[in-house]
Specification:
By secondary structure, this protein is α+β, with helices and mostly antiparallel strands. Helices cover 34% and strands 32% of the residues.
């Protein structure tokens, strides 16, 4: 699986994009914040994040 995460300037406010196997999602800032929160929560659950 090929995963890429990066900065996006598509919207007025800088945000992030996520690409998985060539399928790209560009997130507005509110969605990006929820996505990052969810990823951190999973990381905490599995003991991967302090």
């Amino acid at each position: 699986m090929n995963v890429e995460l990066g900065r996006s300037s598509y919207y007025a406010e800088d945000s992030i994009y996520l690409s998985v196997d060539g399928n790209v999602v560009i997130m507005d800032l509110a969605t990006a914040k929820r996505f990052v929160g969810a990823v951190v929560a999973v990381g905490h659950y599995h003991g991967l994040v302090d």
